[in-house]
Structure prediction request, 588 residues.
Amino acid sequence: MILKALADYYERLLDDPACNIAPPGFERKAIPFLIVINRNGDFVNLRDTRTGEGKKKSAREFLVPQGEKKAAGIKANLLWDNPEYVFGVPKSDSDRDKKRAQDAFFAFKKRISDTFPSDFADEGLQAVRKFIKNADFSYVSAKNPEIWAEIVENRPNLSFVLENDDQLIAQRGVIVEFIKKSNETDGESCQACAVTGELDVPASLHTAIKGVWGAQTSGANIVSFNLSAFCSFGKKQGLNAPIGHKAETAYTKALNHLLRKGSRQRIQVGDASTVFWAKQACPFEEDFSFFLGSVSAESEEDASGKLRSLFNAVKTGVTPIEDDLPFFVLGLAPNAARIAVRFWCEGSIRDFKERIVRHFGDIAIVRAPHDREFLSLFMLLTSTATEGKADNIPPNLGGDLMRAVLTDAPYPRTLLANAIRRCKAEQRVTHPRAAIIKGVLERDRRMNRTNEKEEIHMSLDKDSVNIGYVLGRLFAVLERIQEQAQTGLNKTIRDTYFGAACSSPLVTFKRLQDLAVHHLAKIRNSGKSTVWLDKLLQEVMDKLPSAGLPATLTLEDQGRFAIGYYHQRQDFFTKKEQEPSANEGEKS
Prediction:
C-alpha cells in the first residue's frame, strides 16, 4: 500500500505543469561545473554554475539521465559523472587509485558507446565522443588551474555543454527521446510487479532515498537484500521482491521529492521524518505542517489562525469537498543502511481533521499569557528530553506520538513517564509538560469506558477529590504561604521538595506542614492577615482522605499531582488582583 500510494503520487506530479519532478529515466542533479566544448570536440572552457559566496555556494540543478547506484564497484553515469569517470583523475597518487581511475574513464566511454549507436545523428553527442577520445586532459588544467584544483580536491559532478549553448548535451531533445525509448522494456524478462500488478522487468537495485534525518547522507533503502540470508529461491537483491522498474522509479522519485530540502510536505517528529500527501492537490496538504509541525515565530500567528479555522470547521460540520479525498502520512526513521517505516496512516482528510482537533482538545490546559497557544509535537517531545534537546528525545517516542495523534489511539505510556520524570528532575511543571500529562490521562480516561476516574479539566477543579490532584493543590498552597512569608525568595519548597512530595507524600508533607505553621506565624507577626491563606489551606485539606496520606503515589496520581499543582499556581496568577490586602484582612 505504501509504495502504491507513492507511485500514484508520482503520476500526479508528472501531470502537474508547476512541478519540476524528473520524468522516468532522469533525475535532477546539482552540477557545479560544466565542460564547454565546441562542435569539433575541442575544449573551450570550464563553466561554474554555482551562486553564492564562500562555503554557501550552491550549484545549479540540471535534468540528467538517471544515475547508477554505486557501491564499491565501477559504474558510470551517462554523459555526467565525477572527475574520476569524466577525466580519469585518481583520488590519490597510489597505484590502486590510478588503476581505478583508468577503469572508471574506460567505463564512462563504454557507457556512451553501449547506449548510443555509432551513427547517432546529434552534433552534441558526436562532440562528446571526440572530446573523450583523447585521454590526455592536461590542457584543461592548464587553462583553468584554479577551477581544476577545486575539481580535483572536491570531486564534484561534471557534464558537457556545447559552446554558446545553455542546455546540457544530455538535455538535447533527440538524446532525451532516445533514452526514454531505450528504457522501454520488452516482454522477455518481465514479471508481474508486486506494486502495480503490471508486467515489467524487476529492478534489482532500488534508487537510494535521501533526506531521512539520521540516515546515511548517500541515501538508504526501503527495499534491500544485501545478504544471502535474506534471499530465497536463488534470487538475488531486489529480485526477491519483484518491483518493476516503472514502480521503482515512481515511488523513489516521489519519496525523494517529498523529503527534499525545503519541502512543505515534511516535518520532523523526534527521529521520524514524516511526509504527507493527498490523492489530489488541496489546501489541507499545504496546511498539515502548520497543524502538527514546528513553525517559526514569524509564522506562529498564521499557524494559529489556520488551527482556529480547522476547529470551527469541525465544530460546525461545514466541511469542504476536499474532506472526502484520501490522505496519507508516512513516518520514516534511520536503521543502519536501510530505512525503517515508523508509521503509516491513511484515511480521508475529514478523519485526519477530526483527530487533530481531538488531539488539541485533549492537551488543552490553562496557560500563562506568554505561553504558546498551540503546542507542536516537537515542543511536546523536547519538553520531555534532557536539557530540552531534540537529540535526547527517546527513540521511537516521536513516531509513537504521531501515530497516536493520527489514529486517535492512546498516547504512548513513555510520554507520561518522561514528562513526570522531567518535572521531578527540574522541580517544575511547565506548560508543555502539563499539557502532555493532562492529555495522556484524559485520553486514557475517555477511551477506557469502564474507568471511573475523574475528568481532568482545563483549569482548576475545586471539587476534585483525587488524592494526587489534591496533594498537588496542597503543595502549591504551601509554597504560596512560604512566598508570602518570605518575599523575594530565589528558592522555594518546590526547588527542594517537589520530587519527594510527588513520589512519597506521607513523609514529605509532614515536614511541609510544619514549615507552613512557621511561615503563617511569621506573616502574622509582620502585621499582615492570613485569613485568605488559612481558608484556602483548610479548603484543600478538607479534600484529603480521613485515613491519612498514602506512602507513595502511582504514576497516574503523580501526573495528577503535577496537574493539581499547575492548576492551583495558574489560579493564583489569574486571581492575584482579587487577593485581600493585609489591611483588608485586618478589617474583616
About this structure: The CA atoms of residues 5 and 328 lie 8 Å apart. The chain has four domains: 25-182, 186-259, 275-328+347-452, 461-588. The first strand starts at residue 26 and ends at 30.
